[in-house]
Amino acid sequence: MIKSSRPKIYSKYEINSIVFYGTMFLFIPLVLVFTYVFDVEYKFDMNIFYLILGITTATMTFIGTIILFIKRDYLKRQVRANYMSEFYYLVIISIFGILGFIVLYNYLGGSPKYLGNTFIMLLVVFIYILLSLGRKYFNVNYRRKK
Amino acid sequence: MRKKQISDETLNRILKYLAIIILGFGVILLAIQFKSFWDWILNAIKAVIIPVALAYFGALIIFPIIKYLEKKGVGPRGFSLGIVFVFTVGLIFAAFYFFTPLLVTEIKNFFTDDFPIIVDYINNDLREEFILGTDLYDRIFAYINETNVIADAVDSFFPRLITSLSSSLIPLLTAFALLPILLIFYLNDYEVISENIRTIIPPKHEKNVAELTSRLNQTVGAYLRGQLILMIVLGAVATIVYKLIGLKYYFFFGFLVGVTNIIPYFGLIIAAVPPIVYTFIATSGPGPLLVLIVNVVLQFFEGNIFQPLIMSHQLSIHPIVIIISILFFGSLFGTLGVIFASPMAASIRVIYKFFKDLRAEKLKNNMAEATGP
Question: Phi/psi of residue B290, each to 5°?
Fold first, then answer.
């Protein structure tokens, strides 16, 4: 059988799900990375801070999942040729998310000696995931001519 | 062999061009005679153009948000404009409220903790660590002491700075004070103003001018929005990374990365110099090599990930064009010229491409007419 070269186009439901769960996965690192600049670790008890963040993330994920479920049929009918702006958003939050994981590593008492190594490992993993997601779901053409 | 005769038509054309050139020189000579008058006129034009141009650029950034709100049913225009305006003002105030204390504290700490160390280093340790040898250092120092070159430069620098600040500060302050008012009126009557401008244009060219304006708005708007996002993202990333590596004045240096990124290509290089110099002199914190590596990685990310993603390829201008435009517009309009050199270069490119397309279309139509039945 001849395999079609045309990429499959996904509906807004799949894209919104990826973007939403991606944001929720990176929510704690994202908050940590921005609060890190303001030295929150000296102003709050970090354990309580993590707990509040965890509860907020869980609640938001729950509410978001329900909204996605309710709007599923409507979103499934909406299709675009590519989802560049959603992909840009995902890339930008991933970059801050990676830095957030480094901050988390720092807060959890990780050795500063391996900060660079952790960063590179996370970067490689994230780039791989983003490239795969971009190609498969967001229809991003990486080899676009200038 | 007989020499080829110049036809009357060619001779006429040459004479016409010569007359135009001589007339042009005459006009320039006449204009030079009334320099003070032209300066007066040009200053008046400049005083109007700067706030209007700033309002236009601001509108290009904000108008799509208003349009989006209206599309979502938030209206009428006054209401959506009010929401965006309150939100923008709130954001600016919040940024000032949270970030100014951090910046002020860092600057204060620098002058109390590190500045005396730097002065001490230059006076004592620099001689031993001078890269070109102590002999050359002594000669340079002796020359400085003999000629008083630094004292003279400092003496002449401050009066010049005060003069230039007083001459440029008032128009700039006026421009920034007028900006919100101009923006509100411009955004409220965006379509009406565009329509009124269109009525001035002769009907023959109306379609072309409308097309060109639309292309210009699209390109320059996308560029400005992209640049703003790029500045915020890069400034934030640099601040966080600087703090992670333990750089003392991480907020100030990160802020510098964000602000200088407004100048394409040079911005990040300019922003990298102060932290590297600081780490050379500082007794604690990361080494200069680490800061250099961080900046190289940032530059790589900026050029290969952020810029193509945020600005998109449609706005890609050749680096040489950007450098030339920075030099040219910088010398024409000063700091504002350097900041807006890239959108101006992008606008020139759009205009050039528009006329090229127009010419191609005309040629195609002519060909179709010639070959038609």
Answer: -65, -40
